[in-house]
Amino acid sequence: MKADQSSGRREFLSTSAKVAAACTLFGTVSGIASAQNQPTMSSDITRITDSHYYLDDVLLETGFNFRDTTVIGTKTALQTVEIDQGKIVAILPNKQHANHQLNAYNAQGKLMLPAFRDMHIHLDKTFYGGPWQAPQSREGKTIMDMITLEQKLLPELQPFTEERANALITLIQSHGSTIARSHCNIEPVSGLKNLETLQKVLNEHQQDLTCEIVAFPQHGLLLSKSEPLMREAMQAGAHYVGGLDPTNVDGAMEKSLDTMFQIALDYNKGVDIHLHETSPAGFAAIEYMIKTVNENPSLRGKVTISHAFALATLSPEQAEKTARQLAEQQITIASTVPIGTLHMPLKILNNNGVFVMTGTDSVIDHWSPFGLGDMLEKANLYAQLYTRPDELALSRALAIATGNILPLDTKGQQIWPTKGDDASFVLVDASCSAEAVARISPRHASFHKGKLAYGTMQKSIA
């Protein structure tokens, strides 16, 4: 394909992706298989206190329909899921209850999918939950200008941190995410205040959300002399050491990355760095991180590069080589699935065994107003930009939203849910994964380890 044609296709996909995302705001409706012979049900309830119960009329994917070797549809069946102590303990024929003393709730024929994971969000600084406020114009502004602006804004935002973090959590749970990773500002303006408040909020949500915290030196690890604060954050319970553009912000790539990795090694923590740089320095930083993890095997499986925009500057051959190196060192990529002219090699990364996850980033703040907090929307964008619109490809695209957990493998064998899995899932108004991804189908309820995190259920009455 010629370069101008490829560019035009990306612009078309970007436009259509935005339209599809907008559909979520209007509650796109999709047809689903309805449950037959439903019992009379009670009024809506918003809390399930039972530790052991049945969930009836759950629509589960059971296999693919094939024409020769081509997947042309998805098989489903209504079944009962037994949940005990936050785990799935049995998948049963629909409404077959061995223990009639247990309460039963009704999923009303909604499709059960693995819980979504918002693996890059900033819960500690947001306009969300407050009055509408568009970001200031960034025309002609550098990242240093944005850091200066943020230093002014942070004290104004801090009185609302708790209230707005709770609002963001409710938002992502309403879209099916009950697992998250939040970056939290650690720098001289905030000190540890944001971390302390975020930990308080997350402690209150421990029954309905699992969330890791990244200590994020937003104003530059070296530039803002934040190393002592970062070390305090590790001692205070942050899970990951963050970082930011080691060349453009810190002005010393190797020293910045070495400092970040040394903190992680000293406290046995993971690493999750924001890397926006698209210059050759950005790719040099990726190569340096691969080298560092190779030299420190204890870091394997514990390093995430967020954004990693430099990968979009590589040729397909360079991207393949780098993907293999990232996979070998078990380095994860967290991408927001950007739309527009920046085309990330996410499919190449996936095909070479790199764990690619996604997240909201900003919902609405001084950086961006466009985040919806919806990982199914991210799966939809991934499908539009990187795959083909067929049943199999659409079903596979769901993986970016679920941490690579899918109901069916590529041969159509049911691999989720199984006995012993966490009872963390989302009930979706769709007939199958492919439809859910393509239509960004409405969410009905979100569960986290057996607890109803968002939505309403009805108690089955025989």
TrEMBL record:
GO molecular function term, any single one: hydrolase activity, acting on carbon-nitrogen (but not peptide) bonds, in cyclic amidines
Keywords: Signal
Pfam families on file: Amidohydro_3
Signal sequence coordinates: 1-35
Keyword Cell membrane: no
Top-level taxon in the UniProt lineage: Bacteria
InterPro entries with a match to the protein in the record: Amidohydro_3 (IPR013108), Metal-dep_hydrolase_composite (IPR011059), Metal_Hydrolase (IPR032466), Metallo-hydrolase_Enzymes (IPR052349), TAT_signal (IPR006311)
Segments traversing the membrane: none
Domain Amidohydrolase as annotated: residue spans: 166-429
Signal among keywords: yes
Name of the protein in question: Amidohydrolase family protein
Originating species: Providencia huashanensis
Taxonomic lineage from the root: Bacteria, Pseudomonadati, Pseudomonadota, Gammaproteobacteria, Enterobacterales
